[in-house]
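hey so u asked for the seq, here:
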Amino acid sequence: MVKTHRSYTVDEAARALGVAKGTIRRWLKSGKLSAIEGLRPALILGRELAGFLDKRRKPKQSCALQECYCLTCRAPRETAGGMADITLHANGGGNLRALCAVCSGIMHKRVSSATIPALQTILDVAIQQASSRIGKRAFPCPNDH
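ran it, structure tokens below
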């Protein structure tokens, strides 16, 4: 957490941001981050550091109903072939699993029970029930280690 009304040394800024001191020095040298002129050790104003972090922060990406976020592509993607599997849970929601249309990686998305009918009109959805928890089964596993 960066406080805007405080000055930070390179070491303090590195600890606050969870990066190496060399990274902070590199940002200062490249001009991406500015320090107070003529002071040694270098002091970075908190508002400068907070502004720098805001510029670096990527905007949050949201997925459309028929899209899932692909971790391999790092972007919202359509499902391959317009197909997906949904595993329903006891609380009414479920987990959607599909292949990415671009890289063929597996994508996951949490869906509510209210959105499942709308998904079925857009995608070819196979719905399956989640397996019961081991403690709720009539004959739990006898393995005892």
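Residues 46-56 form the longest helix (11 residues). The chain has two domains: 7-56, 67-130.
lmk if thats what u needed
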